[in-house]
């Protein structure tokens, strides 16, 4: 494995190794203070960000490395100069490329022409760093992630796809509960189903909240993805039955809540649940973005995959 583009490049053993490394990075930061000393990582952002930008920037610094932030003020990658030339130039200077982009095609082209590792920090189809951080968070509360039942509720999107992929590889059970017309991509669901068949896991899509009774974790996201200019109020009636609230937890028996944020309080999730320290793992999950990303960078840049 030379890059992290979709998550499908990884095996169960590799993901578990990343989770273990992420735990150690979190518990023993001083041990890794010089792990990336003398290394420079270019972080590319075509889309705005809070958690992705801050966790990579501070995370790289904690490892002794140097982060170079590139925004999209000069236009999308490939407009001012080709993606091929862009990748070839950065590869001569940097030791790794992290890219948060509009299109997955940009990620694949960067990886094709880059001579250093490329990490997909978000695109239209995948969010592998998020999915891996999510299962690091799960692993901190459940001894065997392959026995975990996780339900995603809301709009099927790139986060849903990555939850499917990582969960399927690990052998977990992941169900997406989405309103009609908002299901995840059918081809990516099929891909995850094939991965689940090999691992003994299970992935599925439903529109019925009752199908997740007895699950361990429920996971939420904004109802309108970044870049979609649809007002939240315009989709409120369709998505409100999928709101994460006390009634949903009581109805299903679910014990823990995840949300990749930004959370629109009193819409996709209630403040009562976000701030409930007994059930909400949301801010642990946000912190774990940094630890799993550091684990990914260390592993790729040292060639341990």
From TrEMBL:
It catalyses: carbamoyl phosphate + L-ornithine = L-citrulline + phosphate + H(+). GO terms for biological process: citrulline biosynthetic process; L-arginine biosynthetic process via ornithine. Coiled coil: none annotated. Its EC number is 2.1.3.3. Residues 147-299 form the Aspartate/ornithine carbamoyltransferase Asp/Orn-binding domain. Pfam families: OTCace (PF00185), OTCace_N (PF02729). Residues 3-139 form the Aspartate/ornithine carbamoyltransferase carbamoyl-P binding domain. The keyword Cell division does not apply. Keywords: Transferase. Transmembrane segments: none annotated. GO terms for molecular function: amino acid binding; ornithine carbamoyltransferase activity. Belongs to the aspartate/ornithine carbamoyltransferase superfamily. OTCase family. PANTHER family: ORNITHINE CARBAMOYLTRANSFERASE, MITOCHONDRIAL, ORNITHINE TRANSCARBAMYLASE, MITOCHONDRIAL. This is Ornithine carbamoyltransferase. It comes from Motilimonas pumila.
């Amino acid at each position: 494995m030379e890059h992290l583009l979709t998550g499908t490049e990884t095996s169960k053993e590799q993901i578990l190794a990343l989770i273990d490394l992420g735990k150690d990075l979190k518990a023993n930061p001083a041990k890794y203070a010089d792990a990336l000393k003398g290394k420079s990582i270019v972080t590319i952002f075509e889309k705005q960000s809070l958690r992705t930008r801050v966790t990579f920037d501070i995370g790289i610094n904690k490892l002794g490395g140097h982060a170079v932030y590139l925004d999209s003020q000069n236009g999308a990658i490939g407009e001012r100069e080709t993606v091929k030339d862009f990748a070839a130039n950065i590869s001569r200077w940097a030791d790794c490329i992290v890219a948060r982009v509009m299109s997955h095609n940009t990620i694949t082209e960067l990886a094709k022409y880059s001579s250093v590792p490329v990490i997909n920090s978000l695109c239209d189809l995948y969010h592998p760093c998020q999915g891996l951080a999510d299962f690091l968070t799960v692993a901190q509360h459940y001894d065997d992630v392959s026995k975990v039942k996780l339900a995603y509720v809301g709009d099927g999107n790139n986060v849903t796809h990555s939850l499917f992929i990582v969960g399927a590889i690990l052998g977990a059970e992941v169900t997406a509960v989405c309103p009609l017309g908002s299901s995840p991509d059918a081809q990516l669901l099929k891909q995850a189903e094939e991965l689940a068949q090999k691992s003994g896991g299970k992935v599925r899509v439903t529109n019925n909240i009752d199908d997740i009774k007895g699950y361990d974790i429920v996971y939420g996201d904004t109802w309108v993805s970044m870049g979609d200019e649809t007002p939240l109020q315009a989709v409120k009636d369709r998505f409100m039955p999928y709101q994460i609230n006390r009634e949903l937890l009581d109805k299903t028996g679910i014990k823990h809540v995840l949300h990749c944020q930004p959370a629109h309080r009193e819409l996709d999730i209630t403040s009562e649940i976000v701030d409930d320290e007994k059930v909400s793992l949301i801010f642990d999950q946000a912190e774990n973005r940094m630890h799993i990303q550091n684990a990914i960078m260390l592993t790729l840049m040292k060639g341990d995959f």
